[in-house]
Amino acid sequence: MTTAEHILVGIAALLVTAPYWVSAGLKTLWFRATIAEMQALGVEPARPIAQATILVQAFGSAALVLNIFPLAGVLALAAFTVAATCVGHAFWRLPAGERLNGANGFLANVGLVGGLICVALLRYLP
Fold first, then answer.
1. Which of 4, 15, 90, 105 has the fewest CB atoms within 10 Å distance of its CB?
2. What are the extents of the domains in the chain?
3. What does the alpha-carbon distance between residue 19 and residue 86 come to, in Å, rounded to a whole number?
4. Contact at 8 Å (CB) between 97 and 41?
């Protein structure tokens, strides 16, 4: 891979992980609100799960961006995203008028997982 290609992959890694590292930062800054959000979604025990969420988002993103065990970072972020999507964007449980918006959020996260996988694979190209 050329230097320019390496730079583009690095930029792609920053962009595809932006929702995670921004979320980790905001969840840390507003930790009480994070716990309240978890509880509102029925996630218990909220405090340790919130802490684990922040760690997965921060370290998974760093692993991919810094190219240090990028596959491990992507697998952690992908597993988190699938679980969080099924809890937070369960459009099939929403009233009919809200399903489309919920499905859009769900599908956006599906695309995000695809982007994570693509960037991780690009990290392994020579």
1. 4
2. 3-123
3. 17
4. no
